[in-house]
Amino acid sequence: MATELDRVDVVTVGVGWTGGIVAAEAAKAGLQVVGLERGRERGTEDYQNIHDEYKYAIRYELMQDVSKETITFRNTPDQQALPMRQLGSFLLGENLGGAGTHWNGQTWRFLPYDFEIRSMTEEKYGEEKLMEGDGYRLQDWGITYDELEPYFDKFEKTCGISGEENPLGGERSDAYPTPPMIKTRILEMFEEASSGLGYSPIMMPSANLSEQFENPDGETIAACQYCAFCERFGCEYGAKSSPEVTVIPTARKTGNFEVRTHSNVVEILTDEEDDSQVSGVRYVDTRTGEEFIQPADVVVLNSYVFNNYKLLRVSDIGEQYDPETEEGSLGRSYCYQIFGGATGYFDEQFNTFMGAGALGMAFDDFNGDNFDHEDLDFVHGGNMAITQTGNRPIATNPIRPDTPSWGSEFKKESIENYTRTLSVSGQGATLPHKDNYLDLDEEYTDVYGVPLVQLTYNFKDQDRARHKYLAERSAEVLEEMGASEVVQSSELGDYSIVPYQSTHNTGGTIMGDDPEVSVVNNWLQHWDRDNLFVVGAGNFVHNGGYNPTATVGALAYRCAEGVIRFAEEGGRLEEE
Predict the structure, then answer these.
(1) Pairing of strands 257-260, 220-221
(2) Candidate list 380, 433, 467, 504, residue with the active-site label
(3) 102 in active site
(4) pLDDT at residue 49 greater than cutoff 80
(5) DSSP β-bridge partners for residue 439
(6) What is the H or E stretch that residue 442 is in?
(7) What is the domain range of residue 464?
């Protein structure tokens, strides 16, 4: 029998970026908050010996243990979905800080076009450009860029983001809090080449800070050392903005926040007397197996895309999406991303082994609707970038396509090209399609006996066309940079769960202004449970041409404001 605990004002399920933001803001407002984190405690002191590529980048020390919980995957409903036995296409975080610990730090705001993609596309190009006959289901987000802009600004100031204004991005209310990172020889070459082609390159907005910064909550973030151990690693210097060095300490300092680690939530409990409310959550101590019930006035789901969806589904909250009838909102509009790029082989050598997770330059001339799509067979596009994240020796073996993947020729090519290859890539958007969705698997369960999430996903024709277009533009930039040979990425085939591509999963718990086709409103409040909030990249109605974290952070601040308002006023939150 589960032990029932004392009631609290707010419980967050997960303590990463979104859980930390909601906890910090709610605790500062005087609410008593409990954060349930299924992983263990960790912080900067745990990363003093982090420069171990095998342990962290290959063996995934900071990632979810897929022997306990994973997902099953298939391209189409007529295939047998099978469990992902080893992390591949994306890397789910675990422990305090979540994926916010091991991210690269690339901190882009989604474009104004992203939030009103359906209405803007239809207005400019006509209804036929929506391609609904081909199964695409574009929706507006129920919130505009201008409405979300103050929350973007708050997230950037909490993180101390280093950057410069983007002439092709949305309008800003303030400058970035710290200046851009160092512009290396590689980035200068990219800037000169892309400017020469008529594009508008800028330094990438970075959570690896160019200088030490004290944020508005009084937390100090150190300056980046350019050690090249960002993605898949925690920062030993405290120089990469992450939940452990920003929002979590802020929440703790209030005295109103308690983190409970090793606490895996398995069910959201609906109030027995009022089914428009939840009463709390049931969770399992992962060390002892003991079950607890944590009553709360407000429950906020802050875990990863898949787990937010899973908790709603197993708790019977919301209507599951059916791809045949297209009824139901829970699980719909799952999206990923594409990366159309090219690799250039150069005669000169570069310091490719040095860098930082968000050290790069990029331009948005082919992102969103910044270019004419009238004669193209796709909409949206991607952010074009070169990054100097630091090539680590085990996983970096730049060889030409006709080189064997082992043996003396492989070794010779790897050593020769390690400091002589540069890549330019277009991080491309993907759009919701009626056949891409999340469900529960009827055959496989996790270690707690809860069904696994089943992912049904494949790239569509627009993805393949967008990928090809961005790859061609990437090759042009590398040729302009002076590469002696340019190899364009091959055309996109079926989506595969391996190898790694990006941890940029979106959809499944999307936001909107219509409860028939969305899970939450624009305060991230669940349509069916007034005191339940769900926030994360699962709220994205489609995926954009950027890394998602800044938009996730902005939504989390919006959600936190909604939670505080609900605690004060109750009821259904309306737009201001």
Answers:
(1) unpaired
(2) 504
(3) no
(4) no
(5) 454
(6) strand 437-445
(7) 3-569
